[in-house]
Amino acid sequence: ELGVPVIAVAQLNRGPEQRTDHKPMMADLRESGSLEQDADVIMLLHRPEAYEEDNRPGEADIIVAKHRNGSTGTIAVS
User: Fold this and answer.
1) What does the DSSP 8-state code read for residue 11?
2) SF4 helicase domain spans which residues (predicted)?
């Protein structure tokens, strides 16, 4: 154990582009099997405005897709 937080950035596949709500899911992460297994927390960022200009401008959703020691859910931020 390192005893320090480690932050990694991962690329998504094209899954969100094919869904009507465009929200990313944990399964959209490339190499998601190892990420799902090893990560304590997985957070995804979704900006509805990127797909529809008038959809919640200036806002984003932080999707907590995995939290080993807590709850999951979506947090709206601006």
Assistant:
1) -
2) 1-78
At 62 the pLDDT is 97
| b/e sequence 2-32, b meaning 16+ C-beta within 10 Å | eeeeeeeeeeeeeebeeeeebebeeebbeeb
For 44, counting Cβ atoms within 10 Å of its Cβ (0-12 exposed, 13-18 middle, 19+ buried), the class is buried
Helix (H, G, I), strand (E, B) or coil at 52: coil
Q: Please state, in angstroms and rounded to a whole number, the distance separating the CA atoms of residues 69 and 75.
A: 17
In one letter, which amino acid is 71?
A: S
Q: Are strands 73-77 and 60-67 parallel, antiparallel or unpaired?
A: antiparallel
pLDDT in tens, 51-72: 888 888 889 999 999 999 999 9
Q: How many CB atoms lie within 10 A of CB 63?
A: 19
Task: Judge if pTM exceeds 0.70.
Answer: yes
